[in-house]
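Curious: can you check?
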Amino acid sequence: MPLTYDPESRVKLRRGMRYYMIGSAIVLALAICYVGWAFFSRWQHDRAVAEKAAAAKRTQDQQTFQAMGGNSFEILAFYANPTAISRGDSASLCYSVSNAKSITLEPPSGVNVWPSYERCVNVSPSKTTAYTLTAADAAAHTKFAQATIEVH
């Protein structure tokens, strides 16, 4: 059978290819839109979660800052644990200060003390002793607190 040239079949073939290309382009455009929407919605959700976490952290940080004395110069705590010991035993003197530049402990116990939000030092008094914690801020204002350890 000889091959013959049919101009109408060539037109049909071109029209079919055109429809195929248009359909493929539409499917590709829809796929790109879907993937773009998925990435954008995930990014938006992650951003909202991060902002919520940052706001919660700011609130928690503010509460912690206020619990630690905020901007005020204070002796937050000064106590002995235990308050009564036998001769030769030791006890802990614990202190907490906010915005202090320096602190001293009287009578001197031979341990170094410095401003801290929470710190304990061990002491071994030989007789009942009243310890005085003196805190000073940058403007040379001072505050005092006292704790007593009874020795039996």
Observations:
- Strands lie at 74-81, 84-85, 91-98, 102-106, 119-123, 129-136, 142-151.
- The helical segments are 7-67.
